[in-house]
Each structure stands twice: as C-alpha cells, then as structure tokens.
Amino acid sequence: xxxxxxxxxxxxxxxxxxxxxxxxxxxxxxxxxxxxxxxxxxxxxxxxxxxxxxxxxxxxxxxxxxxxxxxxxxxxxxxxxxxxxxxxxxxxxxxxxxxxxxxxxxxxxxxxxxxxxxxxxxxxxxxxxxxxxxxxxxxxxxxxxxxxxxxxxxxxxxxxxxxxxxxxxxxxxxxxxxxxxxxxxxxxxxxxxxxxxxxxxxxxxxxxxxxxxxxxxxxxxxxxxxxxxxxxxxxxxxxxxxxxxxxxxxxxxxxxxxxxxx
Length: 262
Description:
By secondary structure, the chain is α+β, with helices and mostly antiparallel strands. The protein is built from ten helices and ten strands. A hairpin with a 3-residue loop joins strand 1 (57-60) and strand 2 (64-67).
C-alpha cells in the first residue's frame, strides 16, 4: 500500500505529465497542499522532495515551488565520429552550417551559445603515458561549454588535450578566438595533416561533484556519465584525449553495431 506522501506525489506528478500544470507554473503552498489532501505539512514536504529528486519541480527558497522546464535532450550516437570525419575535408561553408551539438539535439546553430577556453599545461603522468610522451610535455588544454540559448546549463563539460607541438604548425589552432571551429577537432587536425583512424570511448558513471551539479544544474540524486574519448591517427598515435561529463537527466547514449553477414 502506498504511503501518504507517495499518493500526493503521484497526483502532482500526473498533473504535470498530463499538462494540467505547465512548465514554469507555481504549485500551491505547502500549507494549501496539506489542506487539499488532508495531510500534514511534513507529508507534503516529503512528496515535494520526491518530485524534486525526479527533476519534475524546482523548489526555490523564498519564492515557492515551480514545475521544472524540461531541458533539451541530447542523443549521442557512436556514428557521430564518422559523420565528423566525412565533413572534415568539405568546404568551409558546409562545415559552418551545423555541428555535432546540433546533430545530437536537433537544434540550429543560432539556438546555441558556445564558449571555449584554451591554456597550455604540462602532461601529468596519466596523460603522458596515454600520449606516449615524456612527463612535462606541453599540452594544449581546451575547455568547451555549449548550451541552448533558452537554458542556463551546458549540454556537457568537455576538456580536451592535444600535444602542442603536434598542432603548432597551424597557429590558428592555438587561438581560442577561432572557436567555434567549423568541422571541429577532426578538421583542425586535418589542417596539420592528421587523419583519424579510430576513436575509443570508455564510459563510467558516478554521483556529481558539487561543482558539476551546479554547472550542469542537476536535480538532486542525478548521476553524471563520464566519457573518456581517445582519438588515434592512421599512424596509431594518440592525438586527442577528451574528458566529457554528461548530465544523466538529459543524455541518451545510442550505440548501433553493424554485424557482418554470414
């Protein structure tokens, strides 16, 4: 038999999902809800806490409780890498028309707000081993944040590392003001004669750090998906290592594996 707070939560949940309460609508006060359902305020608070953990409502201190606006979902397919490679050598106008985020979300380029920040750093033990370079080798660290203009949180937190000397032949690749770069990293590497052979992605999940929860505007209890993307060139060198933190409440990972015919 469901508990009293679960009954209240179910009624409110149904009213949200059926559109009776719309995104941005303010819910009645806790006292009003307690009176409506004939229960105590603590019982109502438990119901609201459950809906908050599910990401259906926002509880704003001093302002009330509001139906949460659904965020744009992103579907990340493994076919995106071949799609990016196919575009890497196409004309600038073709590459500038759309990018991977637009492909993942169905949004247009004008819908997006993009931010990039570059800095030079030294390869730690882990990154040095992954790149096959001595510790202390200068890396170009790039941080990317892309969000829907109607939302405050980015789709992901991306940190990419390149070996600086590997790309320094094209000074434009060292300048963050050239971002967003049409065609992305694969085109950037193409400008210095690097072709990708394969991309390896490893996925794990964990609770977010407080900083990640704030940056991604995560509902309580939402996990993050951690993706380590390692790109290899046709000489079997590691040429890019990217760490991507994805919000578990809006990210779908889709893997399609084509099998050889008997």
